[in-house]
Amino acid sequence: xxxxxxxxxxxxxxxxxxxxxxxxxxxxxxxxxxxxxxxxxxxxxxxxxxxxxxxxxxxxxxxxxxxxxxxxxxxxxxxxxxxxxxxxxxxxxxxxxxxxxxxxxxxxxxxxxxxxxxxxxxxxxxxxxxxxxxxxxxxxxxxxxxxxxxxxxxxxxxxxxxxxxxxxxxxxxxxxxxxxxx
Length: 182
Description:
7 strands
């Protein structure tokens, strides 16, 4: 029903437009102007869906998800999630980083998160005083080879022993589409 309505709105040239990354990919919808870095944004949305699926229904709920909030001059995560435990009235926080293997950018996030941690600057944000420890950093990349390279970087550069978790985008999608709660 939703797809039918979206298709109708596109055909009538109302409010929304649609496109796809390639012929074999599903459509994505947008307002006004086609967003930049669409592959990147769609991948971050997969992580949002994945986190939402991991919530223990009845015990937890999504409190918030913020896209690209800058943390001073240190870094700008692709996402920041807060999940509330209803039984204990506590929040758990996650940074989300997407790393496109083909981008050729040096992966320097381990160093940057360690710098943010040591600076204590994060305590100035709304969630800082509510956090029990530093948030988990979820890193999602597009290839197993890049994931392994990132895991090596974490071993080498994680000076403060922060909680980094690395996944491939295919792992995230698989869990979203076919269950699995790991």
